[in-house]
Design brief:
The longest helix is centred in the N-terminal third of the chain and has 12 residues. Helix content is 4%, strand content 52%. The chain is globular. The chain is mainly beta.
């Protein structure tokens, strides 16, 4: 599987690229863009410190090389500290719970001090293959997708365990806690060597109490879903392979609202009016501001 990941990275870097375009009825405006990152895969808003954390893989997504790191930037698009947390391998999804930062790092879950950026604990979920996105539930539990193993792990009470394994997850990538359910982004099925798929993925709802998996009725089979962010009544998802940003309103059909170059990865938001898009291949982060809705 690791060789497939390397082939995938090379294929995307050499693919035909398209510039950003704002589309559809969604009132989006580009607020800023910032370069200087190294294979940025994710952006997380740290509300307590009013800052953004950017995960830099700094190489292949499966490379155990110790050169991955996290950057701190301000919400106006200026660097605070480019190399805030170091010593990671290929950091991807992030979430904050209990005043600590949780970061997926290939087969390990890192726990990082939000004040110092130092790694506090490294957890190794049993049989993990390719950990990807991370989210924190209201009760403090942390959930992590394992994209290549159709699994979701849960961190609770100081330890991480397998929580759900099912082919119905259809290569789970993005994940976000939404009340008593998890919204999971499926990459799709029939994955090829370049990470394209025979069938596109979509959005799934996973009940936290019963673990029942329910596809979104109008948002299935439309994208290789990577990142997911939510606003009241609205969901935005990124399609890594095509670079498209989709808007899904109240379980309606997805609408393409922006088009980037391929490689738009794990998007983040400030929970107010801005979406942050990491562009892995360009080493950039873009900020898109939403206009008030009537």
């Amino acid at each position: 599987m690791h060789s497939r990941i390397k082939i995938f990275t090379a294929a995307i870097i050499t693919a035909g690229l398209f510039g950003i375009q704002l589309a559809g009825a969604d009132p989006l405006k580009q607020a800023w863009q910032l370069a200087g990152f190294k294979t940025p895969e994710s952006v997380l808003y740290d509300k307590a410190h009013d800052r953004l954390i950017v995960g830099n893989m700094n190489g292949a997504p499966d490379a155990v090389d110790g050169n991955g790191y996290l950057s701190l930037i301000a919400r106006d698009g200026q660097f605070i500290k480019p190399d805030w947390a170091t010593g990671l391998d290929a950091p991807k999804g992030m979430a904050i719970s209990g005043g600590k930062l949780f970061v997926s790092d290939i087969t390990r879950l890192r726990v990082i001090d939000l004040e110092t950026g130092k790694i506090l604990t490294t957890l190794a979920p049993e049989k993990a293959v390719f950990l990807n996105d991370v989210t924190a539930a209201d009760n403090g539990d942390v959930y992590v997708t394992d994209m290549l193993a159709n699994r979701i792990y849960r961190y609770s009470g100081g330890k991480v365990e397998l929580w759900l394994e099912s082919v119905d997850l259809k290569t789970p990538n993005g994940i976000v806690a939404d009340g008593q359910r998890l919204i999971v982004g499926s990459w799709g099925t029939g994955m090829r060597a370049d990470f394209s798929t025979e069938q596109l993925g979509g959005l799934l709802g996973v009940d936290m109490a019963t673990k029942a998996i329910t596809p979104f009725p109008n948002a299935s089979g439309f994208a290789n879903v990577d990142g997911i962010v939510t606003f009241p009544g609205n969901i935005y998802v990124s399609d890594y392979m095509k670079g498209t940003l989709f808007h899904v309103a109240d379980d309606q059909a997805p609408e393409a609202v922006a088009r980037f170059k391929p490689g738009s990865a794990d998007i983040g938001s400030d929970e107010e009016d801005t979406i942050y898009v990491p562009m892995m291949n360009e080493g950039e982060v873009h900020a898109l501001k939403l206009a008030p809705r009537s």
